Amino acid sequence: MTSEISNPVKRLDFDEKINGSIRYTADMELPNGLFAKTLRSEHAYAQIINITTPSLPDGYFIITSKDIPNNNTIPIVDNDWPIFAEDEVHYIGEPILLIVGPDIQMIEKLMDQTIIEYAPFKPTLTLMEAMQNPPHLELTYTKGDFDHTTLKVLDKFEETFETGLQEQAYLETQSMMAIYEAPVIKVYGSMQCPYYIKDALQNALAFSPENIEVYQNPTGGGFGGKEDFPSVLGVHTALAAIKSGHPVKMIYDRSEDLSYTTKRHPCKIKLTTYFDENHHLVAREADIILDSGAYIGLTNVVLQRLSFSIMGVYNITPLHVSARAYKTHTPPNGAFRGFGGPQAFFAIESHMNHIASRLGVNPLDLRNAYLVKQGDMTSTEGKFRHPVKLPELVWRIETMSDYRNHFAESEEYAGVGISLFLHGCGFTGSGEKELLKSKVSLAKFEDGTVEIKASSTEIGQGSLTTLSKIVAQALEIPIDKVIHKLPSTANCPDSGPTVASRTTMIVGKILYDLCGEVKKRWNEPRFEVSAMYKYPSDLFWNNTELKGDAYPEYAWGANVVRVTFNPVTYEVDVKDIWAVYDIGTPIDSKMVKGQIDGGIVQGLGYASMEEMNHIAGKVLQNRLSTYIIPCSADFPEIKSATLFNPFEEGPFGARGLGELTLVGIAPAYAAAVEQATGVKVNALPITPERLRRLIHEQRK
Amino acid sequence: MNSENEFSIVFNLNGDEILYLGDPTRRLLNVLREDYHLTGVKEGCGEGECGACAILVDGHLYNSCLMMPYQINHKSVLTIEGFRDSKRFEIISRAFEAAGAVQCGFCTPGMVMATEALLRKNPHPLRDEIASFMSGNLCRCTGYDTIIKAVMIASEAGDGLW
Amino acid sequence: MVKAFYYPRSLNDALEQLSENEILLIAGGTDVVVKNIHWTGHMDFNKTLMPLSHLPALRGISTDDTSVTIFAATSLNTILGHPSVPDPIKQAIRSIGSESIRNLGTLGGNICNASPAGDSLPALLGYDAMLTLQSVQGKRMVKLADFIHAPGKTRIRPDELLLSVTIPKLSYDRYRFSKIGQRKGCAISKLSVFGIGRIENGLISDIRLSYGALGPVPLRITDAERFMNRKSASEVLDNWDIIENSLETQLKPIDDLRSDAAYRLEVALNLTKEFIASFTHC
User: Fold this and answer.
1) Where is C143: in which H helix or E strand?
2) What's the DSSP call for residue B35?
3) Alpha-carbon torsion A83, A86, A89, A92, what sign?
4) Which of A83, A169, A475, C122 is deepest in the core (most CB within 10 A)?
């Protein structure tokens, strides 16, 4: 049962990528261009008393907050993130100024000669310290009737989970360039959201909107790390270009990128499950804490997604969730594939495994008793309106992996773990309806070609090709008649950011529907049509009460991981990985496999080796030799499959995919490790060092 | 030949004989990118960890981010720009396409050069051997499976070429 | 700013330079470059840079009946491809970096960089490697065990370079080099354990145990070796607390960004025990 659209095609950008001719920002020549380097705070929390700048040779410039014509903030949902620190610095590495000029060594010299006088305050560096004060963000919601008084008498199981920072580690570091041709400022770079950068420029410069143009350059990976942060770089390079009168290019080197750009939010999640006298799971409570870093940025949305996902795939009602985020004087955290999902599912799936162990039941049997079904309420009392194929997912993964036999007959030092999970596709809350107002255009030309105009960005995931496939198939024209270039705000309407697993399902859908109109007018030689996203009328969302359909649709998954454990070295070896997903119709089976493999390996890195710590507010692992991401030798072949369950409101039946594959793998890995070692794991990453400590503690 | 800026280096770059009279201690990665406009050779980490800067020198795999021009004196250097006209590249390219082994593309030239270096050394590598050989080329998008498969497909399709 | 760059035409030329000027020696550059690089690839050496890898006198491998001599600027991959280099040494060298690092890096570089985590060092120590250093005044031989005295610090004199490393041709019945890194490929050691030995009449004979990244310098634990020699593996295992004590007092692992001291020590002990247990099978 496959759809024709799933048949793989050659990626539209394949040739230029394989032959090395594609140019990323660092590869582009910039005639008369200048370099710029950021001077950053050495203190985690301090007042800036004085800045002494050296006298500048001809052709060199310093850019500070005084050079910002309008607001000194980057609008990233919240507006608390400064472009340059003015009176205070709030994290080590916070940008204070730029030094711009033609020669790198001279810039370095001028940086050394720039003296910043600080009056340090006592920083809040850990969540523990931060929690002594009120949180900066809070939310709470209840599903069903959660009555502490009734529940007090019941048996309960409570435990806390912790996860740490994770770095996106895109192979191409943050890169941006700006050209000012008065009155127009043009910014080009590595990005996921051209319109976010445009908004940031607008906010800083107060130019007329038509005088701000943002162009996506070929982008070497994003994973969420280029959702929010490029706005900072975009504004920096623009200010430098405007003041200097020259084009300016900024390419972060790896240690700068690792040390100072946004990371996955660390969290602490306390889960409490209540049982009746028959050991049925009758109520659940979650207490969620996030470390937002120095500025809030996207934290509220991460907090929401995490809070809504904590229900898992289980119909355990009532559910009460309270969540808080605290600022610490560390670099601000931001988006990373999964966006709260990986944290939530590590907690809820591990919690279910621990419950199964306490009750002496098979982890899968426990889950099967509580799986949500079509028509059931979501965590925020919306509905799972479309068929929920969890039983089929379970059956499929069981058959593929022989999970039950592996679980029952596990030899010493071998283990197998399972996870079931979902991911809401599209913006959280009513974002797709209220905030985004996504719009696309299609232009038809005399020669029968059609151009896609949308702000969706190709960041490796294949959207350049998949959106073209959707249009080609909808119009029944060959794919080489579809023109799809990297977007710019000058040429393309705002179809929303390339995040939240929304590009295929939502933007693809608008395009698909719009093709109907193109088809009708096909005989006209040349025209352009536009359409906006039609938020499904049967969905509702109340943002004050956090009630309703938090997402237009969900994608689902099941993972099984089998490991062996070496008691001599405490190392874990992954032997098998199985994965089944319901992502509706795959728009291209090869690209889907790419997303599956890539997301799983990133998730396994999160689970087992990607550790990032702050010491006194400074990132310790700031090189690729010390921040360890998986290499080709670490994990075995991934055996994966997709279920046939077309989503009637998705283009050709597609759901979102991008994040789902990272979201569910860590708890499957953790569960396998638990069986192989006999210990309970409540924190990530599960390094051999951590396992050794757990084994010593728990075997007493 | 014995003081800065008077060191002449002669090397073969992608089939062309080159005379280099610049600073012999500049980073080779920068020389290739800036002087010869070979932007297919990329910087991903600057410390020899990620392999995005991988080139072949006399047929062997090297990280150009760790090298200086004096080290390639009288040697032959091959980057993706020089390799892409060959029959072997065609086979590797088709294999990467068949396997779906390209996503963002940033690691790809390095992966191609590593594939060529591997098949020159070992025309029919086993999966484990590929996984081990390529461990100095990091990728964040693909999870490596498709890349390893691509190498196997190339090795089979190009039987006799290596 | 690099002061100067001197490209020696011959070994003697290099030695003369060393005797007259302050020189920063570079072989493959895998360590030197990383230590001296600035952002955007600008390099900054504060002495005259003098490369060595091109000198034929410093490359190659020679053997005679009793020993193997590896010249210092021989690349790690060249060593791996040479039939005379013993397998135990190859196992250690194979674990270094990645394919491209091993094409560029040299054995002499790995030794003179003297990192506590240098992966060739425990195996070379196990082989009682002898270093030949050379200056205009001539050659001198130094035991590798006496050469590295602190992290990154060797007893090389300012006018000397490392010419070669000589190891005896050991016969062995068991060997093992275990490197524990943070991932399976291209990793820096958290710890490493090297063991090699013979079995004579069912008893452990001529055993060597050396340890990397478990202290400021790699080291042999000779008192443990002495205890083990001429005992059966089971007798050693029955008295394992003596070995534990010896290792615990002499190994000085630290907590750092890669691992912690308790893990390193315990795993070193475990790996040693596992190695000794392998002496029970024939």
Assistant:
1) strand C138-143
2) I
3) positive
4) C122
